[in-house]
Amino acid sequence: MIVRYLLIISLCFYHCAEAQKHISQIPDSLRNKDFDYLFDRIVDDSITSSQRSVYMLSFLIKAKTEENWEELSSAYKNYVHHAPDRFKLIYADSMVMAAKKTNDNKVIGAAYLSKGIAYYGKKRLKEAMDIYLIADHYIEKTNDKYLIYKTKYHIGQIKYYLGFYQEAIIIFKDCITYFKRSDVRAYLNSLHSLGVCYNMIGNHGLCSEVNETGIAKGIQTGIRKMEPYFIHSEGVNQIMIHNYEIGIRKIQSSLPRIRQNKDFANETVGYFYIGKAYWELDKKENALAYFKKVDKCYIERDYMRPDIREAYEFLISYYKEKNMVRTQLYYVERLLEVDKKLHRTYAYLQGKIRKEYDTKELVEEQKNLQSSLDLRKYNDQIGLSIISVMFLVIVYGILKYFKNKKEARKKYEELLKKIEETDKAKADKVDEPEFSMSKDAEISVLRSLQKFESSKKFLESDLTLTKLAVYFNTNTRYLSQIIARHRNKKFNDYINSLKIENIAKRIRKEKNLQNYTHDALADEAGFSSTRRFVKAFVADTGITPKYFIEELKKEDFSG
């Protein structure tokens, strides 16, 4: 983070210096042009990159000279779109910094949204989602329908990648209805996203209809940039219904224009499905070349998606048949690495995808393969020792489990009782003041505290004692004392306790949450990391989230 800000400052100084250095090199014809004129030239696809650089620099200098923060934010947004990849996120930070100086929710929200899109372009989905939610916080305070629906669209994209296909479909349908009459390009983007969602849930007929509609609309309006994506989507769709040769032709025809757009993600998806089609056509050597391209993209771009992880399963199967043990082991280890990444990013979808090699099987296979490679160096006694150690560890774990089971059950029952008691508590009860703050002032803060609890504002990220004191129109010392006296907790423990109580209630009521991983539950509960979530859960309840869920499932089954 420090490095990022140092780079931002360096770039700011660089642009200021460059502005002074090159001001005389800017054509006289541009010096008195307004921002709209310059922007129209920047987005003109017919100009060269060097010409665009002149227009962008002129825009930036004009905004800085006039101290026009909104236009300065737009100037940095131009650089986010057109600068080299290594600078995009730095310019995105500058864009947000300039936007904040406007104190305009619309400008700030739009800047955060563009920053989120920059992260999304790098497929850093967790960061993108966090930033989209910040953007939404500002944009929802405006009446700008376009920005509202643009934000919805990008959150829909995240939901699609996480595997919440039905939720994403609802969002994309809403976006299609709005953008159809206001923005053709956004309408086509939403249409394409709807189609790929239909494909993922197995509604291949609707997917084809959407793709045909998208291509026809592009031809009708003359906006054909999305055409290769509809063709690409239909190629994947045809492969899913076993029309392999048609699918291969469609994807291959779409890839040159997708590469031109530097869209490595869809390029990689195309490689995977072409490889899968060749595999099903029993052209395994052809398939192998495409699966290796998927692996290359993962190595170079750190990009992977749950459906294309299957490339590694095909590679493992191929080299297993060829008895090429070292290469087989290489791809087993790569798949283990990929699955760890997917587990962190795609908690929900990970459980939905049928895997030929699940994690336990992969670990076991890795161990067996490694053993076969090391057979010349190690004797059977070492293998027996390993098994013995594993057996002792398992026995110890079982004994420890039964020893703690009774105590854990007691804690579980106490948690259920706590949930039931808090549900019955009166929301409008205010405790009597107990210290040297005026009675009216303390009652006001207590009411604010109860409203804060009932509205679940504690789920907001980056919540601090200072920020909450500002919200309540008091100071940190009084607020800290009130929380300590009336909630019997320090501030951080108080916030964590609210989050844990909230997620525990939800897990009990919303059965689908009982199938979530700890990673996914941590996100739902509002914790920045899984470790903090589990630690807070145990500290507040005395049991782990896993045990709580297991006991709930037992009660549901027995009931």
TrEMBL record:
Domain HTH araC/xylS-type, chain residue ranges per copy: 459-551
Transmembrane portions of the chain: 382-402
Pfam families attached to this UniProt entry: HTH_18
Coiled coil: 398-432
Keywords: Coiled coil, Membrane, Transmembrane, Transmembrane helix
Source superkingdom: Bacteria
InterPro entries: HTH_AraC (IPR018060), TPR-like_helical_dom_sf (IPR011990)
A GO term for molecular function: DNA-binding transcription factor activity
Full protein name: Helix-turn-helix domain-containing protein
